[in-house]
């Protein structure tokens, strides 16, 4: 016997499980936490720097990494610039 109620319930649970499995990209998570540090006019530039820092090319030098942090510090609101550091 086919029970429609059980099938709908299973489909709904599967849908919820699939949503839980969606991975949040590290750059999206970081952006959501620090977006207030920057004026909206710098959003694209900042997101590009964050993406680079989260996924640097294998050939990235320490100087290139540091320059991305410096770029972020430069375009941040002055009150937040000291919160951006390269260790």
TrEMBL record:
It comes from the Bacteria. This is E3 ubiquitin--protein ligase. The lineage of its organism: Bacteria, Pseudomonadati, Pseudomonadota, Gammaproteobacteria, Enterobacterales.
